[in-house]
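Q:
Got a chain?
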Amino acid sequence: MAYHERLLAELEQKRKKLGLGGGPDKMAQQHKRGKLTAGERLDLLMDSGSFTELDPWVRNRCLDFGLSDMELTNEGVIAGWGSIDRRRVYAFANDFTVMGGSLGEAQGLKICRLLDQAMKVGAPVVGLNDSGGARIQEGMGALNGYCSLFFRTSIASGWIPQISVILGPCAGGTVYAPALTDFIIMVDPVAKMFITGPAVIKAVTGEEVGFEELGGGKVHGRVTGIAHFVVKSEREAMELVRRLLSFLPANSGEEPPRAVCTDSPQRLVPELREVIPERSKQAFDVRDVIKPVVDQGDFLEIQKLFAPNIVIGFARLDGRPVGIVGNQPRVIAGCLDVNASWKAARFVRFCDAFNLPLITFVDCPGYLPGLDQEHQGIIRNGAKLLYAYSESVVPKITVIMRKDYGGAYSAMCGKGMGADIVLAFPTAEVAVVGPEAAANVVFRNEIDKADNPTAKRAEMVEQYRHRFASPYKAAEWGLVDDVIDPQELRLKMTSGLQALSGKKEWRPKKKHSNLPL
């Protein structure tokens, strides 16, 4: 065999080993657990045949605990780039068949190099997480790997979109890398996220808890809000990543990708005339307002199970991707509380970072009162939402559907918070407090002196509603730009976004802002 032929044969043999991970037996075990291998996951995520691996030959340099004698193919991670819907995307996938996907110095180096390159070219990063945590045998090398990863993920934030998919255990320091990214997708029931496991918790606190109760998808989807999406399969997770990226630019220096729109921007939506109930205290579903007005009714809701009193998500208007925030009257009357405030605030900041216009749907009586809310920090969390809207410079359209009282007027992007266009339905009410509460204060004397105080109070409530809380009064003050027939909402919003395209807004030059507590 010629010299170069022998070298090429050796190369081919080595490359075959690269694709075997921890070996056929461990790959079979992965399949028995109902999980795909790292390579299979990347194939499912990327356009067919588009993936190119980065640093496949990197190996650890640890001489302790026999690691130098082990065949640790790929060091527990496959990293590289490819395309999704013909757009460049970088991705890495933990390989659980190689030491449980644990992170050591070499794995950290591979992921950090991937992040560095993604930041240089301005492309999104998707992390497919399935790891038992730090590789204890590597000690400080593993710790530095995590530190370096956290640093780069933080620096990349706001420049390139970062999405994490949890496909198995994600424990210890491993959880912080996804927590620093923009979106987390968990596959239930195999995905688990926790800092300390059940055994450690029992040893330290005496509490007995299972893995699912501690950090399963249902917990993080509904209780902690860490999971933005909880899905049932790996295929569903990859499809969701692809759909999510379709709304987003490659980086914050670009505009979001505009889709071809076959849904007329002038389309009337007559069913909206029937959505808002006649009685102001009667609930309705804000999604029944959102879906009919966006292109093809396509609305990707985010954190659906967490803080359901506010709804956030992506949609398109005349092909333009937009971020949507809306009070949900079906849950605690749409009041803002601690969780709803930071849920919406973080989403507003994401949209602003990546140039997505914000559409805000308002029906909110204010912040939720109570000792529990005050002690949980409604002041600091409520301030986060005020801060996020004030800081944002993207086009902002606010739609007042019904109640817009007190603190809600500011928190839900009133005119003074920088809303470019404020539209109101005839059912809108803008006031410091609701008419019922206001009448008790403003018309107290008239009510007390009346022969029939109950009837007089009802009369004064209606008088206050029509004279002081009316959307027309707000329009007289220039706080509402137009009071519209609900069926015209889609055409008003698409026209407004067209007018606001290319919007530029000045902010003082500074190192960075300081978030509320």
User: Anything to note?
Assistant: DSSP finds 20 helices and 16 strands in the chain. The radius of gyration is 27 Å. Residues 3-246 form a domain with the 2-enoyl-CoA Hydratase; Chain A, domain 1 fold (CATH 3.90.226.10).
